[in-house]
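Exam prep: given the inputs below (a chain plus guanosine-5'-triphosphate), describe the expected output before reading on.
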Amino acid sequence: MSGKTSLLKVILLGDGGVGKSSLMNRYVTNKFDTHLFHTIGVEFLNKDLEVDGHMVTLQIWDTAGQERFRSLRTPFYRGSDCCLLTFSVDDSQSFLNMGNWKKEFIYYADVKEPEKFPFVVLGNKVDVTERQVSAEDARQWCQENGNHPYYETSAKDDTNVAAAFEEAVRRVLATEERTEHLIHTDTVNLQRRPRSTTSCCS
Ligand SMILES: Nc1nc2c(ncn2[C@@H]2O[C@H](COP(=O)(O)OP(=O)(O)OP(=O)(O)O)[C@@H](O)[C@H]2O)c(=O)[nH]1
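Solution:
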């Protein structure tokens, strides 16, 4: 273990209602709420974890998926280290919109080399009985659109949620060019970004 902590920003994008807030809440607080309100703007939570011997403070940004909140969420894309593209397996339209979410992120985050940027794809709500999107179709999309890792998750049942976030961390750490940008200090330098485990802008 290096003894140093890196602050990583990951952002959840995807259509309204696919379960972005639920995934963040399940991962950070281990709670699930069946009556969540739509997110307005963005919210974030921090979680400390260790991945392959690296100490990481993961700053998870949850965005509003509804189109009417576009101008409230896009200013927060910049500075993201990884983007979690999320759809719901019981909503084929949310799957079809994935390409648009990726484009929106690349544009507003001003990603210079999209082919090198770490994306992870989450097919959420795998606990449902009536799927509209198969795992096979999702994997194929991931393969054809940048070879992104794919995780089938359920925020409700806590299936693969931690695995997906840990994969995001691994992808960031594995990106060679990230190394020089990581904040390596003995304590986390939170001055660059908001400090507390709290929500904002909603
Ligand atoms: N069955 C099931 N329902 C889920 C799951 N995750 C979220 N939900 C439900 O789906 C609804 C929407 O969840 P949210 O987490 O608010 O979705 P969101 O993507 O954050 O939505 P926006 O804030 O509008 O962008 C809520 O009623 C959740 O309880 C899941 O894994 N399985």
